[in-house]
Structures are given as C-alpha cells and as structure tokens.
Design a protein that fits this description.
Blueprint lengths: L16 E12 L2 E13 L4 E5 L6 H8 L8 E9 L2 E2 L5 H5 L6 E4 L13 H12 L1 H11 L3 H15 L5 H6 L7 H13 L5 E5 L7 H18 L2 E6 L2 H7 L2 E6 L2 E7 H6 L4 H8 L48 E4 L2 E3 L26
Helix pairs in contact: 3-5, 4-5
C-alpha cells in the first residue's frame, strides 16, 4: 500500500458533508442508550477521512444516521447533517432516496445482509446499471451493435472484475447465500461505485477480505477519490489501514469525537489520552515490546459518566474532567482535541508510535 495522500483537503474548500452536534439515542428496557452525543466533523471533496475507535463507540450508528437508516421508532436523532450545504435532517423518504445510492453510497459492514436474498446478484447489478449508467449502455450498444441486455452484462462483468471477482457468469446466477463473505463484500463495493457517488461511506469495507484483495480494493478506492473527487468516510478499527489510506483521522470514544487531525499529525503527535492509548495498543512486529492496553472498560451508555466520558480510564484525569465536558480546542494546524490538558491550545504530550509510511499491523 502507498503512503497517505499528500494533497489533503483544506479548510478553504466548502465541505461536501458536515455533521454538527449529532446526537442519537435508542430506547431499551433499561432506559435511553445515548449512542452518540454531540458528534461533529466535516468531510471535504476528494478527501478520505478515517473514523476510528473501539467497537461500540458509535461509528456505524454515525454512518446510518447520516443516511437516515436508523429505525423510525424508539430512536431520537438531533443535531445537523448537511450535504453540499443542504440539510438532510428533515427530508422525506422520497427526497432521501435521491441521495442514497446516487450522491451518497454506503458499503455496509455485513455485506451479505445488505444484498437482497430474493434476487440473483446478476438481477440486482443489472437493475442498478440501467438506473445509473444509461449513457454507457448506449455507447456500448453502438460500439458492439448489440442489444441493451448484452451491453448491461458487459458493463456488469467489467465492474465486477475491477474489484477482483472472476467467473462473473456464475456470479450473475448466484444468490447472496451462495457466495462467501469476501465475495459478497467485493460485490457490494462494485455496486456502490456504479453511480460514482460524491460521498462514499465505507463501514469496515475491507474487514472480510484477505490481504491481497484488501490492497486491491484500497487502491481502487483511492483511485476513485483522486480521479473523481469522491469524498470517503472510511470507518475502521484498523489503525494501520487508516495510516495508509486516509488524509485525516477522527477518533471517536463513547459517542463523541475526541480528536481530529491530519493523518501524519495524529500518528506523530496524538494529543488525547485515548488516542495515545489506541496507538500504544498497536503491535509492532520485531520490537519485542509487550502490547499495551487501555485500562478499564467502555462506559455504560445508559448511565455514562459525567464530564469527559474517558476520565474513568484516563491516567491524566483532573477534577474538572469529572464535572464538565471538554470543548474542542485547536492545538495545531487542523489539529483539534477535546481535552482539558490543553487549556491554551498547546501541543505538549507528543509521542510517535507508528510510521505511516511503513504501514501497520492488522489486529
């Protein structure tokens, strides 16, 4: 894999996607589960932003909240989500369908559950090609003097081969339960890219793939981003991939964004104690060092701790951390952190754990 992009988006650009003070709660028999609380980030055209954090911190809920894919009952969602300057919070289902799939596409964490089990893979991708690529169909018909059906099949074969799938004629006849998880994920990636979306949300998009196919898919996503200006929200638990793939990193803990910075900055000099703990927990082959861990457990989201949600696990916690939620502070160029350790926006506490040019270890 290549090193992170050297042309990150700048704040001079208008963001294509803005999430401001996003809060999501679910009803449970124990009470309201406060999954997200005040999540805030921006995504710029042509940028790849990693959203990282422990399992259960709210990464996937963030993605589903953006596309309004959360249940309609038993869920509260508030805050602001803006796409290309337009609010998505109160759109009708019909209006949201104009965004989903065409302008904003998503690759889900569980690929087989996101493929319709009733229709074959061929029937589903053929329908999407007819919907999104009518000009390409007509071009192939003229070039090959063929009908619509053959042109659609030629496009489908090309798109599936781009993501490393072979024997596409057999795949056209297969159902979701007849293919492996890795094949299903590559199929979903191919269908998500058909419309050349302006924003692609990739939720653990490569977690079901082997290393060789993973490298191919990451290269394909980077190419899409650079050639067409597609912005990618790349949700992952793998810090090695985040280091290689992304322009910026947003660290989420217990439903809050605690640090956001350019990739090189956050790996060379993480500020938040949680970010430092995540980086310290990444194994380094050949170092001979024991793998570090963050003490304690993630908080109960029905009764989260007051103040900074990380303070029960933080060795640097102060009295104020237990009383008041820290605001976001700027501590460097495009580097922001929510922590009382930086009252004046200084950059102390820098440590370096991973060299992004050398990659990371999958965990």
């Amino acid at each position: 894999m290549t090193s992170p992009a050297t042309k990150p988006a700048t704040t001079a650009e208008a963001p294509i996607l803005q999430v401001n003070d996003l809060t999501v709660g679910f009803f449970s028999p124990r009470g309201w589960v406060k999954i997200l609380e005040g999540a805030h980030f921006s995504l710029y055209p042509g940028e790849i932003l990693a959203l990282v954090g422990e399992t259960g911190c709210g990464k996937s809920v963030t993605a589903k909240a953006i596309l309004d894919l959360l249940p309609k009952t038993g869920v509260e969602r508030s805050g602001e989500i803006r796409f290309d300057g337009r609010s998505l919070m109160n759109l009708s289902n019909a209006d949201m369908r104009a965004f989903r799939g065409q302008r904003v596409a998503m690759i889900f964490q569980n690929p087989q559950s996101s493929i319709n089990p009733v229709f074959t893979l061929g029937e589903q991708i053929f329908r999407l090609i007819r919907m999104y690529l009518p000009d390409r169909i007509q071009s192939l018909r003229r070039r090959h003097a063929c009908g619509i059906a053959k042109a659609v099949r030629l496009i489908a074969a090309e798109k599936l081969e781009e993501v490393g799938l072979t024997d596409v004629q057999r795949l056209f006849k297969a159902y979701a339960h007849q293919v492996s998880g890795g094949m299903a994920q590559r199929y979903r990636i191919a269908t998500a890219l058909l419309s050349a979306p302006e924003v692609l949300i990739a939720d653990e998009a490569t977690s079901a793939l082997d290393v060789t196919v993973q490298a191919h898919i990451l290269k394909l996503l980077r190419s899409l981003c650079r050639r067409k200006g597609t912005a990618i929200l790349f949700i992952t638990h793998d810090l090695g991939i985040a280091a290689q793939m992304c322009d910026r990193v947003a660290v989420m803990y217990s439903g809050r964004i605690v640090e956001t910075a350019p990739t090189l900055s956050i790996f060379d000099c993480p500020r938040h104690p949680y970010s430092k703990g995540l980086l310290a927990a990444v194994p380094r082959l050949g170092s001979g060092e024991a793998v570090a861990s963050i003490p304690g457990m993630i908080p109960d989201l029905v009764h989260p701790p007051p103040g900074c949600r990380f303070h029960p696990r933080c060795a640097d916690a102060m009295a104020v951390c237990q009383q008041k939620r820290p605001s976001i502070r700027t501590v460097g160029e495009r580097h922001r952190v929510a922590c009382y350790l930086y009252p004046h926006g200084d950059g102390r506490g820098c440590t370096s754990r991973i060299d992004p040019s050398r990659g990371g270890h999958r965990g």
